[in-house]
Design goal:
- Its main location: cytoplasm.
- One of its GO terms (biological process) is L-arginine biosynthetic process.
- It is found in: Cytoplasm.
- It comes from Pseudomonas saudiphocaensis.
- There is one protein chain.
- The protein is α/β, with parallel strands linked by helices and 406 residues long.
- The chain folds into 2 domains: 152 residues, Aspartate Aminotransferase, domain 1 (Alpha-Beta Complex); 229 residues, Type I PLP-dependent aspartate aminotransferase-like (Major domain) (Aspartate Aminotransferase, domain 2, 3-Layer(aba) Sandwich), CATH 3.40.640.
- The strands form 4 sheets. Strands 4-12-11-10-7-5-6 form a 7-stranded mixed beta sheet, sandwiched between helices.
- A hairpin with a 4-residue loop joins strand 16 and strand 17.
- Helix 3 packs antiparallel against helix 12 and helix 13 runs parallel beside helix 15.
- It is globular.
- The chain starts with 9 loop residues before the first helix and ends with a helix.
Length: 406
């Protein structure tokens, strides 16, 4: 019998947790589908999806069953042994994508760390030690480890931690000429998000990704797509690269893959994967049976024509509703994104006020996200019910009505 839980409240966060986050004033305690209940029993509509994580909403019966079944069998076995869920998951991902090999870890940062290390190791082995430069985009976000935060193009996240990892260049996003000017025979990899997520839900232009692929081929560099946020159905295709018809050499994903259970992955080709031989990279928990059993179920459900078409349909429904609200209340200059990764760009009069809108929405029992100070981001469950979209938009309208009146 388990011991009774010690009562906790939001103020405890400020006493016992390292202050790297500033969470909302309420504590969610239960979720079902796209609805969440807090400690007081208040019901909220969740359009955050745990920041593009809960692809099947909260407490999806198939995920609960997969986790419960695996929990009764095998939790952890280490990488001295392999396990059935990891092998099944890898086979399904390889069959569904360009890739021939998978590497499992625990987060998006770890997936990108593996990708950047692999790119450097590949270039070192094939071309020599001078080919180690990595080019990424200004305002990109690739994780919080020292390597990934240095590759990320936002100095506010990487400054103040001592000397940075060398050999990283940043160029403006969607600017092919800038990439052309920066790339050289010293470049081992170009890393891009098909949609820049954290910095404002900004999709890549078709010609930009096509051009990046061509430049990488010309210079013997690997093209890495960071699909930590865009992958696993979020955009209406299994992975965003499929929209563009541009194939990377390495792809990373995390958020959506476990539907809420922590797991990350890196996918790549046989040719590149061979340069991570035994002992060159590793992880204690990566590929553990619990995470992989859940992720396998997520892939089975999401990678179907019905669910992927459903994401595209929901995009149209949400976008139309958001454009209407933006027009009625004069707050958005643009609604952009793909699938169920949507950014409402605040107009000149509302610039810098995303947090105010976030707070006003919470007062109307609606959970939203920011993507910087000028963009409201929505990343709901891929299977969100029509009734929750309707009610979510109604609550958003109430929040905007109060704000604009004030």
């Amino acid at each position: 019998m388990s011991a009774p839980h010690t009562p906790v409240e939001r103020s405890d966060f400020d006493q016992v947790i390292v202050p790297t986050f500033a969470p909302a004033a309420f504590i969610p305690v239960r979720g079902e589908g796209s609805r969440v209940w807090d400690q007081s029993g208040r019901e909220l509509i969740d359009l955050t999806g745990g920041i593009a994580v809960n692809v099947l909403g909260h407490a999806h019966p198939a995920l609960v069953q997969a986790l419960t079944e695996q929990a009764g069998k095998l939790w952890h076995i280490s990488n001295i042994f392999t396990n059935e869920p990891a092998l099944r998951l890898a086979k399904k991902l390889v069959d569904a994508t360009f890739a021939e090999r998978a590497f499992f870890c625990n987060s998006g940062a770890e997936a990108n760390e593996a990708a950047f290390k692999l790119a450097r190791r590949y270039a070192h082995d094939v071309f020599g030690s001078e080919k180690y430069e990595i080019i990424s985009a200004v305002n990109s976000f690739h994780g919080r480890t020292l390597f990934t935060v240095t590759v990320g193009g936002q100095p506010k996240y990487s400054d103040g931690f001592g000397p940075k990892i060398e050999g990283i260049k940043h160029v403006p996003y969607n600017d092919l000429e800038a990439l052309k000017a920066a790339i050289s025979d010293k470049t081992c990899a170009v890393v891009l998000e098909p949609i820049q997520g954290e910095s404002g839900v900004l999709p890549a232009e078709q010609a930009y990704l096509e051009g990046a692929r061509k430049l990488c081929d010309e210079h013997g560099a690997l093209l890495i797509f960071d699909e930590v946020q865009t992958g696993l159905g979020r955009t209406g295709e299994l992975f965003a690269y499929m929209h563009y018809g541009v194939t990377p050499d390495i792809l990373t994903n995390a958020k959506s893959l476990g539907g809420g259970f922590p797991i990350g992955m890196m996918l790549t080709t046989d040719k590149v994967a061979q340069h991570f031989s035994v002992g060159t990279h590793g992880t204690t928990f990566g590929g553990n049976p619990l995470a992989c059993a859940v992720a396998e179920t997520v892939v089975d459900i999401v990678n179907t024509p019905e669910v992927l078409q459903g994401v595209r349909d929901r995009h149209e429904r949400l976008k139309a509703g958001l454009l209407e609200l933006g027009e009625r209340y004069g707050v958005f200059s643009q609604v952009r994104g793909m699938g169920l990764l949507i950014g409402c760009v605040l107009n000149e009069a509302w610039k810098g006020r995303a947090r105010e809108i976030f707070d006003a929405a919470e007062q109307e029992a609606l959970m939203l996200l920011q993507a910087g100070p000028d963009v409201i981001r929505l990343a709901p469950s891929l299977v969100i019910e029509e009734a929750d979209i309707v009610e979510g938009l109604a609550r958003f309208e109430r929040a905007l009505a109060k704000l604009t009146k004030a």
